C-alpha cells in the first residue's frame, strides 16, 4: 500500500497548514503561535486530551484508540532558525530574520496529517501521544519535555520521529539501527595575558602565540589521540583577539565544537582539550578560562524499533534503506530515545538546497508520505483487539 487514500485526499489541506507555518516562523522555546495553530487543528479533528505549555510552548495530545493497548509517541519539532529566507516562495517568511530552513514546518504538518486520519478512523487499540516540541535547534526542547516527565505522565512506551532529507530522492526512507547522529559538545575559552605596546613584548604577556599553539595542538586530538576507525570532529571555529597592529591584546577568545558517537571517545576529547589548554596556558604564562558544555547526546536508534519502522515504511515506499550512513550532525530527539525505545528516520524530499540554507524549502509532496507512515506505524503496532 502506498500513501493512504484518505490522507491523499487532504494533501492540499496539509500543504495549506505547512505554508501557514512557513509564513510564521518562531524560534527556540517561543513557539506559542505555532502551538496555538496546532491545538486549534487538533480540536477541529475532535481530539480533546490536549496538554499545552510543556517546555513552555510544547504540546502533547492524546488520541484514544479502541480498547486497551500500548501507547506510542510520535514527535514533530516546531521551531525555525534565525536567518533570512531567499526562497522567493509566495508563502515565504513574513518575519524578518526568521525562517523555517530545517523543514520543521513540514514535520508539524505531517504529524497533524497523521493526527487527522487517526482521530477520524481510530482503527487501533491503546493510545497515540502526539508530541509537538519547540527548541530543537537551540537548547533541546526535547530534553526539557522529557525532564518535565512526558514519558511517565502519558505512559509513552515507544517513540518515533521523521526528519525531511533534501539529499535523497522524494519518498526515500532511510535509517539505521544504532548511532545515527552525533553527540555535540561546545567549548569557549578565554586566554588572559597582559596587554601593552607591541614594541615592548617583554613587558607584556601575549595571549596570541598561546591561542595559535592551542589551535595547532587541538588538531592532534583527532589525528593523534583517536582510534582511526572511530569518528570524532574537533572544530575550532572562533579566534578573536587584537585591535591594532601596534597593540598586544590583553585577551584572546576561542570557541569550537566537538562531535562524537562513542562515550569513551567523547570523554577522551574533553580530557585532551582540557589538558592541551592547561598545558599551553602554563607554557605561555597566560591564564585560561575554559567552559566546556556537554550538549545533545548521540541519536541512537533501537534495533527492534528501527526494523519495525523500516518495515512500515516499506508499505509506503519501495525505496527504504536500513543502512544510512551516520551523520556528525545532531538532533535532540536523542533525549527521547534515551528515555524510551524508538527510531528516527529520514524521509527524502528530492535533492535540493540543504537544511539551514537560505534557499531550503520543505517539499509538500513528502507530507502525505510522512503522515501515512505515522498512521500505518500506529495501526500496525497497535492493531484492534478482535
Ligand atoms: Zn536544523
Ligand atoms: Zn531539523
β-strand amount: 15-25%
Q: Enumerate the distinct ligands.
A: zinc ion
Domains counted in the coordinates: how many? 2
CATH topology of the largest domain: Aminopeptidase
Shape: elongated
Q: What structural class do you assign from the helix and strand content?
A: alpha/beta
Indicate the percent of residues in helices: 25-40%
CATH homology superfamily name of the largest domain:
Zn peptidases
Compute the separation of the termini in Å: 23 Å
Strand order of the largest sheet: 1-2-4-3-5-16-6-15
SSE string, helix = H, strand = E? HHHEEEHEHHEEEEEHEEEHEEHEHEH
CATH uppermost class of the largest domain: Alpha Beta
Main attributes?
Alpha-Beta Plaits, alpha/beta, 386 residues, 2 domains, Aminopeptidase, four-stranded antiparallel β-sheet, eight-stranded mixed β-sheet
Offer a concise description of the structure:
The protein is of the alpha/beta class.
What does this structure look like?
This protein has 386 residues and is α/β, with parallel strands linked by helices. The chain has 2 domains: 5-179 and 298-381, Zn peptidases (Aminopeptidase), CATH 3.40.630; 183-294, Alpha-Beta Plaits, CATH 3.30.70. The protein is 35% helix and 25% strand. It has 11 helices and 16 strands. It has helices at residues 5-9, 11-23, 32-44, 104-121, 141-147, 150-153, 207-223, 263-284, 303-316, 333-339, 367-381, and strands at residues 49-54, 58-64, 71-77, 127-133, 158-165, 173-174, 178-181, 183-192, 196-197, 232-241, 247-248, 251-260, 287-294, 299-301, 320-321, 342-348. The strands form 4 sheets. An 8-stranded mixed beta sheet has the order 1-2-4-3-5-16-6-15, with helices on both faces. Helix 2 runs antiparallel to helix 4, helix 7 (207-223) runs antiparallel to helix 8 (263-284) and helix 9 (303-316) packs across helix 11 (367-381). It is elongated and about 85 Å long. The mean pLDDT is 97. One zinc ion (ZN) binds at residues 102, 137, 355-356. Residues 102, 104, 136, 163, 355 line the site of one zinc ion.
